[in-house]
Amino acid sequence: MRTEQLQRRVSALPLPPRLPPVGAVWRHKSAAVGLVLVSLVVLAALLAPWLAPYDPNAQDIMQNLRPPFWAGGDMEHPLGTDALGRDIWSRILFGARVSLAIALCAVAVQGSVGTILGLLAGYFKGRTDLYVMRLADLQLSVPPLVLAIGVIAVLGPSLTNIILILGLTGWPYYGRLVRSEVLSVRERDFVMAARALGASDPGILRRPIWPNVTTSLTVAATFAVPLMIIQEASLSFLGLGVPPSVPTWGAMIADGRDLLSTAGWIAALPGMAIFATVVGVNLLGDWLRDVLDPSLRHRG
Length: 300
Fold this sequence. Notes:
The chain contains 13 helices and no strands. It has 300 residues and is an all-alpha fold.
């Protein structure tokens, strides 16, 4: 009889909030703007080989420093060229692929590491919690960008290195978030009921704890994407990102920093691409947070 009562209690528990349908975005103006911006950037990245009229690394000194079409240029190079005659439009398109790929992969790495360690620390507590949190405190004592610069300066710039460094420097934020969620959830009735029914620790972590953590984790990952884009651009601007042969927005800004007075479009256009992408993702993240957090649903 007691087992049946516990099973009924577990089955009657409310489920955590689910992700809203995509169509709901259009009912929120700022979220709709964010979705449009993000969609344009993603499409530009995916279709870069077909949309780009030139090889992003193709140099033509005879065509260097040509202005955009609205500033006296022509549609042969619609956004102008840089000091080496490379087409700005082509480089922005291929730079979107690099920035998005690095940001998404870095968020996946830091989210995976932080989630696993946060689940273990919050559920088992004791020494596990102590060791994980002290490791997080140690890493948080050093600014992530400074740590990334130091490590990349030793290992050398490469696509794999920058993804791993950005990923491994960001896991404490996820670890602390997941740990706090687990500490709150593990004492609730449905977890105690599952434990009384004989569920194993992996089973309890997988269900019912994990579904109640995913919403906060989804919002945190959404806000982390623009941060990774900015950090990658910062490293590329300093020459510590991907190799010079790979077009990135940060490296393009660095190429144009000495020509701001004569050819400002070289730095301004990739800067505008970063701005649009970051604003778009943040607008979507704000809407997602409001939708998934019941206490904020009255907003917007």
